[in-house]
Amino acid sequence: MSLGRLLLAWLPVAALFVVAPPIGDRWEGVVGQGYFVWSYSRWEVWWRLVEAAVVVLFGSLWFDTLGAGGWGVLFFLVGLLVAFPRRLVMWQYVEPPRRRALLVHAGLDVARYVAAGGLLAWRLG
């Protein structure tokens, strides 16, 4: 796989990761507050760009060596691995109304990974 092809695959995934993370990030806010909160820090944007690069390299490994089949299940499982462990630890320390916000945020994180897999299937598949 050429570096140019990886870069072209990274661009839409990076855009998705920079735009999508604020959805649901404010789980600690007021109960009943909406899940769509748009705020960024420079560190968070750089981290999401690096995260997108890692997902592209992972997707490249999948699509270039093992084929294109089953990408949806693969990226769903990776999204679960990324989204839930941290939130399950927080789950035990928050009151019940905030637990729902944690689950919604984790679900949105999983959806972000599945969407990234779809973009990579389109660009690399």
Task: Give an overview in words.
The protein has helices at 3-19, 42-66, 71-91, 96-124. The chain has 125 residues and is mainly alpha-helical. 74% of the residues lie in helices and 0% in strands. The protein has one domain (3-124). The radius of gyration is 16 Å and the shape is globular. The relative contact order is 0.20. Helix 1 crosses helix 2 and helix 1 packs antiparallel against helix 4. The protein starts with a helix and ends with a helix.
Q: Please bin the fraction of helical residues.
A: over 70%
Rg = 16 Å
Beta strands, count:
0
Envelope shape? globular
Provide the succession of SSEs.
Answer: HHHH
Question: What is the mean pLDDT?
Answer: 81
Low-confidence stretches: none
Distance between the termini: 12 Å
Briefly, what is this?
This protein has 125 residues and is mainly alpha-helical.
Task: Give the arrangement of secondary structure elements.
Blueprint: H1 3-19, H2 42-66, H3 71-91, H4 96-124
Helix pairs in contact: 1-2, 1-4, 2-4, 3-4
Q: Which features would summarize this protein structure in a list?
A:
mainly alpha
